[in-house]
Recover the amino acids of this structure.
């Protein structure tokens, strides 16, 4: 019951300086090696922590699905005597999955707190970046661009319009060709 979480594929062979670092306390929650000095943690970006958090959420979903599969396969004891060892084995698996889920949720909480700590100095909060349903959309601040950027934007938009027009012509030609082929096939019968 003291087994640690399996490592992600591709991380086992990585040198220690390239292996992902977790926030303080996350390694001890998983029973892995201790954390590097605080200076090494400053080099980790919030994006990297979010990626680790995403993998953790995927692990949580996988473990939860396994729990549901185990409980679905378990028969209710409605008078039928089954092997006590089988029930104990399933109960042990469920307990282990629940313990691992608790560790994963702790890891996720530590990652979240570390990301919030690292991004506290950002100008915009998450509520401003992703609007909630029903909230009024605030106007987007657009900084004035140089004339070269505006000219390049106009050129790109014109190229996109031309390509769209070419695609429309090709789609019309394909539609007419298919129409003719279908008409010939029906006349053949």
């Amino acid at each position: 019951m003291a087994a640690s979480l399996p490592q992600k594929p591709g991380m086992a062979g990585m040198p220690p300086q390239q292996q992902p670092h977790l926030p303080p306390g996350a390694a001890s929650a998983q029973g892995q090696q201790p954390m590097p000095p605080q200076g090494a943690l400053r080099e980790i970006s919030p994006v990297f922590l979010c990626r680790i958090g995403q993998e953790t959420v995927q692990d949580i979903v996988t473990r939860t699905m396994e729990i549901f599969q185990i409980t679905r396969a378990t028969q209710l004891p409605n008078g039928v005597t089954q092997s006590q060892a089988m029930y104990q084995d399933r109960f042990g698996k469920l307990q282990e999955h629940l313990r691992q889920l608790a560790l994963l949720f702790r890891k996720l909480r530590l990652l979240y707190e570390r990301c919030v700590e690292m991004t506290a100095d950002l100008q915009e909060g998450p509520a401003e970046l992703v609007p909630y349903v029903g909230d009024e959309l605030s106007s987007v601040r657009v900084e004035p661009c140089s004339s070269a950027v505006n000219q390049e934007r106009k050129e790109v938009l014109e190229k996109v319009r031309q390509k769209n027009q070419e695609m429309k012509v090709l789609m019309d030609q394909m539609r007419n060709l298919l129409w003719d082929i279908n008409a010939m096939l029906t006349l053949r019968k």
Observations:
- Residues 26-123 form one domain.
- Residues 1-34 have pLDDT under 50 and may be disordered.
- The chain has two domains: 26-123, 149-189.
- Residues 147-188 form the longest helix (42 residues).
